Amino acid sequence: MPAMGILESRFADIIWNHEPLASRDLIKMAEEELHWKPTTSYTVLKRLCERGIFRLQDKIVTSLISREEFYGMKSEQFVEDTFGGSLPAFIAAFGTRKKLSDEEIDELKKLIDGMRR
């Protein structure tokens, strides 16, 4: 999955939060929220469409993958690239810098148990 910069992510969030969305409305929102010129918005939209994240068809913008799918794939790629695909190694490294609360540990246990079934 190609990387998405911070500004591209904010632009993508506008789409995910409001889709389906007329391209003119997206351009207006990006101008208001990101202070972008229309040319910038159209350039970024084209790039994200070329990456297979969004589609512009008949002046309507929709997603081809959900926000959850995108960030899930991005997280999976990070773990693969950085920790050789080992989720336990990632969690161990994460835990050395940030201690998990009892609630977070319980939530992780529930997630893991759900994956077993």
Describe, in plain words, how this protein is organized in 3D:
The protein has 117 residues and is mainly α. It has 2 domains: 6-65, Arc Repressor Mutant, subunit A (Orthogonal Bundle), CATH 1.10.10; 68-116. Helices cover 69% and strands 9% of the residues. The chain is built from 6 helices and 3 strands, in the order H-E-H-H-E-E-H-H-H. It has helices at residues 6-18, 23-34, 38-50, 67-83, 87-97, 102-116; strands spanning 21-22, 54-57, 60-63. It has a 3-stranded antiparallel beta sheet with strand order 1-3-2. The longest helix is centred in the middle third of the chain and has 17 residues, at 67-83.
CATH architecture of the largest domain: Orthogonal Bundle
Average predicted local confidence, pLDDT? 91
> What Rg is obtained from the alpha carbons, in whole angstroms?
18 Å
What order do the SSEs take from the amino end to the carboxyl end, as H and E? HEHHEEHHH
